[in-house]
Write a structure and sequence with these properties.
The protein is mainly α. The protein has one domain. The protein contains five helices and two strands, in the order αααβαβα. A two-stranded parallel sheet has the order 1-2. Helix 4 links the parallel strand 1 and strand 2. The longest helix is centred in the middle third of the chain and has 10 residues. The protein is globular and about 45 Å long.
Length: about 120
């Protein structure tokens, strides 16, 4: 894990921001991660395999800007039929997201997220 995470220091990316659901047959991690040294990661740096039926994705990404998280870092597969995405994203505005911040798979048919997420207002994660 350390050999994969350390090259991200020079790449202006947090340590392991979006480890996917399954990383199988991971060989030659050092040689694969080496080219990332010194590179800038732009928009959508680590979106997982499928993000299906995403509603108001723009609202989610724009809210992440002030939450000190790059746009859509760590959305793993699948995120299906997400409802009330704006309400979920607004909660993240005042929060600091730390090491290994990501959405765990699967997050399907999520309803009522506002009531669950409100206690997280202002809480460092």
């Amino acid at each position: 894990v350390a050999t994969e995470a350390l090259p991200t220091v020079g790449a202006l990316e947090r340590f392991l921001p979006s480890v996917g659901t399954t990383v199988t047959d991971e060989g030659r991690a050092v040689t694969e991660a080496g080219p990332a040294l010194g590179t800038l990661v732009g928009l959508l740096p680590s979106v997982g395999a499928t993000v299906l039926d995403e509603v108001r994705a723009l609202a989610e990404t724009l809210s992440a800007v002030r939450a000190q998280v790059r746009l859509l870092t760590g959305v793993d597969a699948p995120v299906d039929d997400q409802l009330r995405a704006l309400a979920e994203a607004l909660v993240a505005v005042g929060t600091l997201v730390g090491l290994l911040a990501r959405v765990e798979p699967p997050v399907g048919n999520e309803v009522g997220a506002v009531a669950e997420a409100l206690p997280a207002l202002g809480a460092p994660v």
